[in-house]
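Look over this record before class:
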Amino acid sequence: MSLVKYRVHEVAKDFGKQTKEISDIMAKYFTAPKNHMQVLEDNELAVIFDYLTQHNQVESMESVFADVYHEPKEAKEAKPAAHDRRERTPAPAGKKLPAPGEKSGAPVQKPVSRVPEKKIVDTRKGGAVNLEKYDERLENIAAGKTRQMDAGKEKFKNRGAGQRRGGGFQGNKRRQEEQDRMRRLQAEIAKKHPLTVKIPDEIAVGELASRMKKTGAEVVKCLMKNGVMASLSDVIDFDTASIITEELGCKVEREIIVTIEERLIDTAEDRKEDLLPRAPVVVVMGHVDHGKTSLLDRIRKSDVASGEAGGITQHIGAYQVKVKGEPITFLDTPGHEAFTAMRARGAMITDVAILVVAADDGIMPQTIESISHAKAAEIPIIVAINKMDKPAANPDRITQQLTEHGLVPEEWGGDTIVCPISAKTGEGIENLLEMVLLTAEMRELKANPNRSAHGAVIEARLDKGRGPVATLLIQNGTLRQGDVIIAGTAVGRVRAMSNAQGQKVLSAGPSVPVEVIGMGEVPSAGDDFHAVADERMARELVEQRKHENKMAIHNAVGKVTLDNLFSQIQAGEMKNLNIIVKADVQGSAEAVKASLEKLTNEEVRVRVIHCAVGAISESDVMLASTSGAIIVGFNVRPDNNAKENAARMNVDMRMYRVIYDAINEIETAMKGMLAPKFKEVELGHAEVRNVFRITGVGMVAGCYVTDGKMQRNAQMRLLRDNIVIYDGAIASLQRFKDSVKEVAAGYECGITFEKFQDIKEGDMIEAFLMEQIQI
């Protein structure tokens, strides 16, 4: 409230305005005055003054500064003393400033001095301003402020004097008593209403103190009392943190941290009413060459076993067949010891295991391993004693050996079904399939088709035309075209699906194997896959997984070749043997990797630093050069850029068709016994441009020699997208109707191969000779 009562009508009168004008200004910025007698506040007066100043400007600056010199002393003395307090207010708009002496009732004296001085501006519209009232108001305001300051100083002085009279010791004592009382009060409140602290699986000591609203020293002291020496930055587990929290009077609640994976992937259990019967998934296991693939061929009425190299099932496959109208999904796993991981994977995702044992051979190491995998997966085992058509077949000996490994036949009082069969003649096959259906029926296999799909990657490869291709087995839910799927570090959208017969399908339910295209990269065989709703979050999870994998890779050391490997080991230079594995399919790459890493001994550790599918590329050579690695190719070849870079960078590349050769050669090199007798000499390349059949000869490849030459009886490889399809020899070489010994670059020729007919346009022929090395 203003100390001087200055009313609305008085302001209007002093400024030569109507009372309504002042009321309008008040209404615009505050509230309209009740009447013309209302007393104005300081802030209201200030706003009114500023408003009148801004809305009453002079016509020009020249009129304001027309006279810039002192007036005579007599004239100055005749002016009011308070006139200077009006000098900031400009004249109203449109009004000329009165000349000195005008309307003042006194004549103007001529100036006797020309000293410049501030110009005094009169803002009065008409009439005289009550200057004495303004002066009185300002003096009262100043006096009030002074009294307030004096009162504050006096209070401060009196308080200081009181403290001096009472003594500093008593004041400190009172403060200490007050603090103790507050602490006791807080402790009582904490006992009645303890603080609940959320603690994750691991937490830093400083963070725990912050959550308990305790000092770090209190928490560290409590840890020390419990025998734990930790600083504020150290991390303690949930059990330790909960003990400390309870000792310090707080309640403990376990904090559940929801990860991206948990938010993205639906792992909720199905309700019983949602479950429907599904087809059984059967894995065929056993030792190498005991007839697993032949058994599947008999069931599928196909013949693919004859095309395999070295007696090894090179790829894992999934097939679905119908037996008496009931679908059964079969998985075929290789029997060689290199494929341990693949057999373990096959057992974990299946319902029934068929253990194939050759009647003339008996239980072998991989047979025992297969039994272990099936038992670990807790799936029933049906034993198929194969090759019963052979004269040396002895099923009784097989039965005796089975009992030694915990498989007691039903005939001997056990619960293991044993079926004598012959995959060659078909004997016992029908009975074996009936036993499979019976076993599956006893297990009451069910799944929920009405949810997002999840399952396992059976196989994966890189196709030149279609990109990454993955064989998936759906274990639950339904996979549909267009779904976003994540498998390991691969993510993508299902662009197309085909079933075991190669037919395009739009959806696939539980126990159905499908081949899928649309992944961003080739997933690893054995990875779980999930269909998810949020593609952005799926890619975020993949990046997180890739980062974790990258952090797990250690730095590599110097270059090495198989030829100088043993000398480096002897010199103590080799600690790690780094290898890059490239194969035609993921399952083979995984098998080669597992076999090579088993070669680790006390002197050298074998590390596969990169394992992938597809042809050997320039980037693989660059990686090998920087990490000092050897490149091992299994059923693949390097492209031209990779060959040139490998030669320039002195990178050792080894190509193999049979896994035994890769294992034996590297193992021999590590032992210092590597003595290569032959080396490969490249002759040239030819492109297959036409394929035709000639009666009595078979398939003939019409070729164009792109570089080098083609030579009769030379060794050759048939490449399709840089994948080795056939490895053999050139049987015949024709130039028009003439048989020739060789055909040079730039010419066309006809080529036939020994015992091979699967030739297609666009295939490349790589001809070479094996040349003996002089030692």
Q: What stands out?
A: The longest strand covers residues 678-694. Residues 292 and 356 are 6 Å apart (CA to CA). Residues 68-111, 302-316, 335-340, 554-558 have pLDDT under 50 and may be disordered.
